[in-house]
Specification:
Length: 321
């Protein structure tokens, strides 16, 4: 970004002398077609990019004051609109900065929150594609997207599309109960003619409702598994084990966390042989799972089998390097 101080004459003409006197402003993106332009609209967008990219920028508050001064009540909507335009063109990081700038001015903007969360989602999905992206960046934008969708549903609880995307965010985190409850809210708030659909036609809305209705039904068993895991984590080892035991056969039998939590329950109930069998099943499905190996070390030590305890201790050392 290129910065320059605006002349006193220009600041006087725009009524911004008290706000920006002696303060450098972003006049263009280095190497772009905007280079050297100083029209008001360009300066406003560049200021939004700066405060969106760096919320701790030294002149951030001055920039916010100038954007409000220059555009009035239209400040946030104008930045949201430009952010949407950039997103439509596939320039998601530029859109992200502009939308963050808009939210700096109007933190509760429904359009701003919704589009910002969507853009963050696009960024992390692009980074995660083919497994060759930046893992840290993927995680940061994924968390930002989920947190913003959560905030959107809290601030605007009747806005259905926030629940639609938040449900998928919870599903990707393995939070099946939260996903189901969130999608039930989507079905609730997307019913009737009052839903704001962002130019979505009736056919598209009906398709989304059918999709989510199917998802809610599919989550019945995962929700039970999550309940069983939560019971075990909460100390109800018998209750949790009894729930999870019902899934030892069938499609969830290849899901290693099922066996891990069964092992934790059996170990906590002093059923060493059953626990050992469960943790070995974990290793069949997830061969480098050092948590399961660590549990096996403790179990074998508890029953006096030092040979197997040492075997898994060595495996852990090899995996950890």
């Amino acid at each position: 970004m290129m910065f320059a101080e605006l002349s006193p004459d220009y600041l006087s003409r725009t009524g911004a002398l008290e706000i920006l006197a002696g303060i450098p402003v972003p006049v263009g993106i280095e190497g772009s077609d905007d280079r050297g332009q100083t029209d008001l609209k360009n300066i406003v967008f560049n200021m939004a990019r700066v405060i969106g990219g760096d919320p701790y920028f030294v002149y951030a508050e001055k920039y916010v004051d100038f954007i409000k001064h220059a555009t009035g009540d239209n400040a946030a909507p104008m930045l949201v609109s430009e952010g949407a335009r950039c997103a439509d063109m596939g320039d998601f990081e530029d859109a992200c900065m502009l939308l963050r700038g808009a939210l700096r001015i109007e933190p509760k903007s429904k359009e701003g929150l919704y589009l910002y969360a969507r853009v963050c989602k696009e960024i992390y999905e692009e980074e995660a594609k083919d497994g060759i992206g930046d893992e840290e960046k993927t995680g940061m934008f994924k968390a930002e997207s989920s947190e913003t969708f959560e905030l959107l549903t809290m601030i605007h609880p009747d806005f259905a599309m926030g629940y639609y995307f938040l449900g998928y965010a919870y599903l990707n985190m393995g939070l099946y109960l939260k996903a189901r409850l969130t999608w039930q809210d989507f079905l609730k708030y997307s019913a009737g003619s009052e839903m704001e659909t962002h130019e979505m036609d009736d056919q598209m809305l009906a398709s989304l409702r059918e999709e989510i209705s199917e998802r809610v039904e599919e989550l019945e068993e995962p929700v039970k598994i999550e309940l069983g895991c939560n019971k075990i984590m909460g100390g109800d080892f018998v209750g949790g084990r009894d729930i999870l035991a019902g899934f030892k056969e069938g499609r969830y039998s290849q899901w290693w966390p099922l066996w891990y939590y069964l092992g934790i329950a059996e170990s906590s109930l002093a059923n060493a042989e059953e626990a050992i069998a469960d943790f070995k099943k974990v290793l069949q499905l997830s061969p480098s799972n050092t948590d399961a190996m660590d549990e096996l070390v403790h179990l074998y030590e508890a029953i006096g089998d030092t040979v197997n305890a040492e075997k898994y201790r060595k495996k852990i050392a090899i995996i950890n390097g």
